[in-house]
């Protein structure tokens, strides 16, 4: 009878430990998912602090534009973009 009770108690303890392990595994998965989400958000923040302008913004060629006024507008917008990036701590890769 004592052995039977000991076996029942052992099974109960084993079940409790399995439940705790399952709960801990779930918590670990949730923390890992949270870590991934945080890393993705950090990457988004980093990428938002960088801007890239292609060569056409650096090497304005009048042959590309039929209207000189359009070229002047683009040059002015590029200059404004440089200033805005600098004022807001955004790295502009040209």
UniProtKB/TrEMBL annotation:
Domain of life, per lineage: Eukaryota
Keyword Coiled coil carried by entry: yes
Entry keywords, A to Z: Coiled coil
Species: Ambispora gerdemannii
Coiled-coil residue spans: 14-58
Name of the protein in its database record: 13264_t:CDS:1
């Amino acid at each position: 009878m004592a052995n039977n009770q000991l076996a029942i108690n052992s099974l109960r303890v084993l079940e409790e430990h399995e439940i705790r392990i399952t709960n801990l595994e779930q918590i670990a998965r949730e923390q890992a998912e949270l870590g991934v989400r945080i890393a993705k958000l950090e990457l988004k923040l980093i990428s938002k602090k960088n801007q890239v302008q292609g060569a056409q913004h650096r090497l304005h060629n009048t042959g590309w534009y039929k209207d000189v006024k359009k070229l002047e507008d683009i040059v002015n917008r590029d200059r404004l973009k440089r200033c805005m990036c600098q004022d807001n701590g955004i790295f502009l890769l040209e």
